[in-house]
Amino acid sequence: MELSFTQGRWNYDQWGGFDPISSSNAKPPGVELWAVFDVPHEQVDDSWKNLTHALSGLFCASINFLESSTTYSAPDWGYRPDSGSLRYGSLPREAVCTENLTPWLKLLPCRDKAGLSTLMDRPSIYKGYYHSQRLRLTSSEFEPEGVGSGIVLEQTLTVVVQPSSQRTVRSYSHETKLQPSWSLTSIFGRKVSSRCVLAKSSIVYLQLDGGLIAELDSLQNENKIYSADNYVSEGVRSNAFFEVSVKPDRVLKELKGVEKKNPSVLYEFSIDKYDESGPFDLGLTWKVPVAWSCQKAPLHVSRFLMGSGNERGAIAISLRSTELTDELLHTEKSEGRCKLEVKVFQVVPWYIKVYFHTLQVFVNEEPQAVSDVVEKMRVSPSVDKLSPGVMEMLLKFPCGMKSAAITLDFDKGFLHIDEYPPDANQGFDIPSAIISFPNFHTSMQFLKDDSSDKSAILSKFEENSAVLAYTEVLLVPLTTPDFSMPYNVITITCTVCALYFGSLLNVLRRRVGEEERLKNKEKEPGRLRQLLFRLYAKITGRPLEPVESTTTSSSSSSSKLGFIILVAGIAVFWQVYYG
User: Fold this and answer.
1) 352-363 and 340-348 as β-strands: parallel, antiparallel, unpaired?
2) CA distance linking residue 290 with residue 225, whole number of Å
3) CB distance 112 to 118 below 8 Å
4) How many Cβ atoms are within 10 Å of 565's Cβ, its own excluded?
5) pLDDT above 90 for 549
6) Given the DSSP bridges, would you call strands 265-270 and 250-253 parallel, antiparallel or unpaired?
7) DSSP assignment of 265-281, as one string?
8) Angle between helices 98-106 and 44-59 (to 10 degrees)
9) Where are the strands (E) in 94-249, listed by range?
10) Per-residue model confidence as pLDDT tens digits over 88-130
């Protein structure tokens, strides 16, 4: 099982695309989950649902949304060898925050209290350009070098940050970028004062990329600086180009290969000898301005939408060759092997109805026959409200290709009003497509040193894994209803019903005769006043005039009854024509 929480998108042009970090640790935005189950085939889906609910509660995330069959897929032959028992799902819009990082830190032996994990300052991590926390669980029975039975837990935190002293001064060059001086204090605001007592080893590696080494060699030759390659010598902190604040315990140089013409260098630092009186604060200070670029992926991959309107559109995947591709293809031509294979794995939601028969392939801006480029293809069309659409392709492009593109047409479906998210007008996400290059591998082989044990990081660097890249997340606008209209209908209906039933209950519960008697009683003159009237009539000899009293009438009751009938008629009319 592999679970990742990612914020931001990995920049394959500036941060590298042909190394183990970019291929293994660079993940798509949001949440991504891979899982292989060792259960009977009919129990895989139930196991997947139980897993999503358990992970959702453990990491305080919305992973339980992946339990629906419309959100996960079952890859067959691409990227993973376990077909049938493999499930894959992603949530591109899942927000990543400290609530997800805290449970991840609790799985560490010393949490964030001691060792290298003390550098994980929340503000420093979340204000960076990119961060991804990955959790991988593997049964030791399925590991090639497993020892005994049990579960192997692997946790990786990948962060792209910039020193605080250089955050206001930025360079926007597309290919190269001036490297600023930095230290652990300037990046994380903390130092490592002690090691975790439960850890077998605590090692920090500083990698000098192959492109940087080549640039330093070029500057050395141009300026005729004699350094005798002291940046690859052990026990040396300073040279003509940069200075390291801490003397490395060991220097490892990568072996040259067909795909690695510029080998990188690793500085190894063990923090076992550092304590609170002398904390570990690694830093690098540049003496001369050096600009360099990381090694890029074999092909630059991008994905975008075509078309306009709310009815239909098209998905396009663009592939552009890089300098690395030209060099490697030239080598393959000389050796008689001329091929460039690309694997594409793409999942689209069910409401994006992709027509896979509309697949078109363009090479160097010229249309090509699908059978000439597509070596193998597996398609699983989407089913409304049941399963998403899945496409796996193996493409074989000709040598000397400069650019290529594949397009697929689709129609936009309609959702029920209950299926729209709260921010439906923002659009709907299509998860990132996965692009793999089987002919290119990111393994880094170093000189053997039997004097010390090999660390876990070096073992991961030496794994022979294919180059992997993720495309952008697409945002598709769908036709959305007027969500204010149901609100207006509800308010008007409730108002009419309140007036009708309120008036009806008022008339039914009030007794009109009793009300009139109370009014007449209030207007009747007192006995003293009646005696005075009679005495005055006898003295004056005039007839006694009766005291005026208000007579009850049924005019008020009839008017109220007419109002009730009018309100009832309006309610019936509204229910018939607008209900």
Assistant:
1) unpaired
2) 15
3) yes
4) 10
5) no
6) antiparallel
7) EEEEEEGGG--SSS-B-
8) 100
9) 130-139, 151-160, 177-178, 182-183, 203-208, 242-244
10) 999 999 989 889 999 999 999 888 888 888 888 888 888 889 9
